[in-house]
C-alpha cells in the first residue's frame, strides 16, 4: 500500500513523463517540418518511450493500491531556432527529469517504502542513459558545426545511434 506522500509524488512523476512525451512529440513535428526525417523519427521514438515510462508508473501506482491520475499537461515549446537548440533543450529536460526521479527516490527512502525504491532504480538507470545520449548527440552536433553535409549525415545516422551508459547491465548478466 502506498502512503499518500508517495502516491502524490508518483502522480507528479506521471505528469512529468506525460509532458516529456509531449515535449518530444513537438520536437519530432518541428524536425519533420524542417525536412530532418532522421531527427524526426528519433524524436517520435523518444516520445513513445516517454509515454511507456508514464504507463509503467500508472500501473505501479494502481497495483500498489493507489490511484494514478491523468492530469492536464503544460503545452510544450513548438519551435526552435536550430536543431542544436532543440537538442540543448532535450538535455535540459532530461536533467530536470533526473532531478525529479532523484527526489522520488529520496522520498521513498524517507517513507521507508523499499518496494517503490526498488521500482525507481530502473528510472535512475534510464535517466543516466538518457542524459548520456543527449550529451553524445550534442557532442556530435558540435563536431558538425555549420556544415550542411555533416547535418545530412547526422540526420541519416541518428536513427542508429546507440549509447551504452555505465548504468547498463553487463552483457550476459
TrEMBL record:
One of its GO terms (cellular component) is cytoplasm. It comes from the Bacteria. GO terms for biological process: intracellular iron ion homeostasis; iron ion transport. This is Ferritin. Gene3D superfamilies: 1.20.1260.10. Residues 1-145 form the Ferritin-like diiron domain. Iron-storage protein. It comes from Winogradskyella jejuensis. Its main location: cytoplasm. Its EC number is 1.16.3.2. PROSITE patterns: FERRITIN_LIKE (PS50905). Keywords: Cytoplasm, Iron, Iron storage, Metal-binding, Oxidoreductase. It is found in: Cytoplasm. Belongs to the ferritin family. Prokaryotic subfamily. GO terms for molecular function: ferric iron binding; ferrous iron binding; identical protein binding; oxidoreductase activity. Fe cation binds at residues 17, 50, 53, 94, 127. InterPro entries: Ferritin, Ferritin-like, Ferritin-like_diiron, Ferritin-like_SF, Ferritin_DPS_dom, Ferritin_prok. It catalyses: 4 Fe(2+) + O2 + 6 H2O = 4 iron(III) oxide-hydroxide + 12 H(+).
Amino acid at each position: 500500500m502506498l502512503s499518500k506522500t508517495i502516491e502524490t509524488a508518483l502522480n507528479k512523476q506521471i505528469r512529468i513523463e506525460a509532458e516529456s512525451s509531449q515535449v518530444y512529440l513537438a520536437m519530432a513535428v518541428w524536425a519533420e517540418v524542417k525536412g530532418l526525417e532522421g531527427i524526426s523519427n528519433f524524436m517520435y521514438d523518444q516520445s513513445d518511450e516517454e509515454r511507456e515510462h508514464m504507463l509503467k508508473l500508472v500501473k505501479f501506482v494502481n497495483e500498489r493500491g493507489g490511484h494514478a491520475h491523468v492530469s492536464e499537461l503544460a503545452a510544450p515549446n513548438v519551435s526552435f531556432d536550430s536543431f542544436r537548440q532543440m537538442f540543448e533543450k532535450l538535455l535540459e529536460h532530461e536533467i530536470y527529469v533526473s532531478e525529479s526521479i532523484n527526489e522520488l527516490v529520496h522520498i521513498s527512502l524517507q517513507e521507508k517504502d523499499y518496494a517503490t525504491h526498488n521500482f525507481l532504480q530502473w528510472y535512475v538507470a534510464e535517466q543516466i542513459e538518457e542524459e548520456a545520449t543527449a550529451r553524445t548527440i550534442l557532442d556530435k552536433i558540435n563536431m558538425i558545426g555549420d556544415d550542411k553535409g555533416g547535418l545530412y549525415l547526422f540526420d541519416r545516422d541518428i536513427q542508429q545511434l546507440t549509447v551504452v551508459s555505465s548504468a547498463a547491465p553487463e552483457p550476459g548478466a
